[in-house]
Specification:
heterodimer, A: 3 strands, B: alpha+beta, four-stranded antiparallel sheet, about 20% helix, about 35% strand
């Protein structure tokens, strides 16, 4: 399941917290749904150990909030603080992407 | 690493987290592991994560001296580091442990069981584990695997056979899959994928004549599909949401009534005589726990509902607009009733073909059998306890002659023939 590419190795650059916040940005999801969603949108397969390690950190920082258990599955919801953090992260990443694009474009232009 | 072993080790490692962690996360982690296909990578990842959590000050005991905290950490680290040794032990246990002692050998399944259903003739069992496996149980003492699907279904819901036994509907994560199971050797073939709601499919059921398939979703949506021609299924209607999410479905024998249960303890009755214009007839008084199983009696006059607080309620639905409770019965339910809504992980109800007995099992290893009197009364006849069935998925054959069930985290399915 999910989109796997030869860039799977990039997974190590992706912060599980960021992936989880992104997954929860459009509505609450439970643990397994987060895993499949992250795999679908990023191609990164997150193991349960990593997922719950990150979830517990996010919960302690107040960026996600657990909802009532439904049939032993507990959905998580992003908090207002979590949304702020995600927006900031996205801004930073956009800046990085912009610079990276510019520099790789320049590099190839010079190379040519 | 074989998946069964990886699953076993993963579940073991969840038990190696600090106590405070386990109290908060163990149950849902086990649930995720049940859905996930564990590999060696999962085991390694859990091992590292468990070790990390022991080093995390937030999960160490508070208000203790440094030495004690140090000691606590050492004990935790030692427990986690014991894994390689325990691994050896588990390998030998996995090789040795096979039989759970029932009246048919358990079906060895590669993963945990997510859902189970008997074919209408009781000769075949469909198991979701999480691929679809078809087993012949014509000779219960010698079950035989007929075939299995490629790819996983990954679901926590029981599949449903069409009344002629030729088509099987499985509840996928967000869609229903129809399978041709007339000849499941070597594989059942996929006929159609039905998508209607972004939420999980919790229950699927064919109408008694097979022309309609009802699917109930975790967000409370219900959809009726025209399955007269399984190769060309069309959506007939999307029904108004039921609060709490749909947890169980039952059609009356004439197909004119559809009962749907919800995790908030209510049951809704709808008139499905004209599937294109379904109307809500009644919402039945809330039961204390989430309603996990539903069944109409063979004459359609009684509706039994089993809820998570260990109660079965019998109602006379001769006048569906004003059903009357005729009896309530108690049965052992596990986990024990808790305040608030909840569902039993494995629950099933079955009337005998004559309608004279009602059999229930719900999240425990005990089957309860009642006599049903002419006026809709219940008199308990017997209880049968078997360790090989736990809180995992469970199903009765039609008429309740046989039960197939699995322990919550087990990788076997036990078959029992009931007296």
């Amino acid at each position: 399941m999910g989109v796997h590419s030869k860039f799977d190795g990039l997974g190590r650059f992706a912060d599980p917290s960021l992936l989880i916040l992104t997954s929860l940005a459009d509505g609450p999801r439970h643990g397994y749904a987060i895993m499949t969603d992250v795999a679908a949108f990023s191609g990164i397969s997150m193991e349960p150990g990593t997922l719950y390690g990150a979830l517990s950190r996010l919960e302690r920082r107040g960026w996600v909030r657990p909802l009532a258990t439904e049939e032993r599955r507990r959905p998580y919801e992003i908090t207002a603080a979590g949304q702020e953090v995600l927006a900031e992260q996205v801004k930073t990443m956009q800046q990085i992407v912009r610079v990276a694009r510019l520099r790789t474009a320049n590099a190839s232009a010079w190379g040519a | 690493m074989p998946p069964a072993l990886a699953g076993r080790l993963s579940r073991f490692l969840v038990g190696c987290y600090p106590r405070r962690w386990r109290e908060r996360y163990a149950e849902e982690m086990l649930e995720v592991l049940g859905q996930h296909r564990p590999t060696a990578r999962t085991v390694l990842n859990l091992w590292a994560s468990a070790l990390g959590s022991h080093l995390d000050p937030a999960y160490r005991m508070e208000g203790r001296s440094m030495i004690r905290r140090h000691k606590k950490w050492l004990v935790g680290a030692a427990a986690v580091s014991a894994v390689p040794m325990v691994l050896l032990l588990l390998v030998s246990i996995a090789a040795w442990q096979e039989n759970l002692g029932n009246n048919g050998p358990p079906l060895p399944l590669s993963q945990g069981v997510f859902g189970v259903a008997f074919s209408p003739d009781g000769r075949t069992v469909a198991v979701i584990n999480p691929s679809l496996e078809m087993w012949s149980v014509a000779d219960p003492a010698h079950p035989r695997r007929l075939g299995y699907s490629k790819g996983d279904i990954v679901t926590g819901a029981d599949p449903a056979f069409s009344p002629d036994g030729r088509v099987l509907a499985t509840a996928g994560q967000q869609n229903v899959i129809l399978w041709n199971v007339t000849d499941p050797v070597p594989r059942p073939t996929q006929i159609a994928v039905l998508s209607a709601s972004p939420s999980f499919v919790n229950a699927v059921l064919f109408s008694p004549d097979g022309s309609i398939l009802a699917s109930g979703y975790a967000d409370g949506t219900m959809v009726l599909w025209n399955t007269a021609d399984p190769a060309h299924v069309t959506r007939i209607a999307t029904l108004a949401r039921q609060a709490g999410g749909v947890s169980a479905l039952s059609f009356s024998p004439d197909g004119c009534l559809l009962a749907s249960a919800s995790a908030d303890g209510t049951v809704v009755l709808r008139n499905t005589a004209d599937p294109a214009h379904v109307t809500r007839i009644a919402t039945l008084a809330r039961q204390a726990g989430g309603v996990s199983a539903l069944s109409f009696s063979p004459d359609g006059r009684l509706l039994a509902s089993a809820s998570a607080d260990g109660t079965v309620v019998l109602r006379n639905t001769a006048d569906p607009a004003a059903p009357v409770i005729t009896a309530t019965g108690r049965f052992p339910a596990w986990p024990p009733p808790q305040p608030g809504a909840g569902l039993l992980p494995g629950a099933a109800l079955a009337f005998s073909a004559s309608g004279h007995t009602l059999t229930a099992i719900a999240g425990s290893s005990t089957v309860t059998v009642w006599n049903v009197t002419g006026t809709g009364g219940l008199a308990r006849v017997t209880t049968i306890t078997t360790d090989s069935i736990g809180s995992g998925p469970v199903a009765f054959s039609s008429g309740g002659h046989a039960v197939a069930g699995a322990p919550a985290t087990g990788d076997t399915l036990a078959l029992w023939t009931l007296p």
